[in-house]
């Protein structure tokens, strides 16, 4: 069995990093997303086109993060914290 990068949360739905690879993926996501924010700030614009570009890039980053978590982690499920 392969080592899981992300484990399922005990309460709710989602994952948390369980290995250094998972933490590296999460750190990379945060760096890219904050870079997206700072790049947006450098443009000095509040036009709808700049906002649209920011949201599209952020949505793409989130989709990639979810895909990586799904591929390298436990299968997601809703949990109330009750152990089976």
Task: Walk me through what this model shows.
With 84 residues, the protein is mostly helical. It has one domain. The protein contains 2 helices and 4 strands, in the order βββααβ. The chain has helices spanning 20-42, 48-72; strands at 6-8, 11-12, 15-17, 79-80. It has a two-stranded antiparallel sheet with strand order 1-3. A two-stranded antiparallel ribbon has the order 2-4.
Short description:
The protein is mainly α and 84 residues long.
In total, the number of domains comes to: 1
Number of strands: 4
Average pLDDT number: 87
Helix segment count? 2
Strand percentage lies at 5-15%
- What are the secondary-structure elements, in order, as H or E? EEEHHE
- In percent, how helical is the residue content? 55-70%
Radius of gyration based on Cα positions: 16 Å
Task: Give the overall form.
Answer: elongated
Briefly note the structural class of the backbone.
Answer: mainly alpha
What ranges have pLDDT less than 50 throughout 5 or more consecutive residues? none
Rounded to the nearest angstrom, the distance between the terminal CA atoms is 21 Å
Largest sheet: 2 strands, antiparallel
Strand order within the widest beta sheet: 1-3
């Amino acid at each position: 069995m392969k080592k899981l990068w992300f484990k399922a949360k005990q309460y709710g739905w989602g994952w948390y990093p369980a290995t250094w690879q998972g933490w590296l993926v999460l750190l990379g996501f945060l760096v890219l997303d904050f870079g997206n924010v700072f790049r947006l700030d450098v443009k000095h614009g509040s036009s709808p086109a700049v906002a649209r570009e920011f949201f599209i890039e952020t949505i793409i980053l989130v989709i990639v993060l979810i895909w990586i978590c799904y591929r390298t982690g436990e299968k997601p499920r809703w949990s109330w914290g009750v152990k089976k």
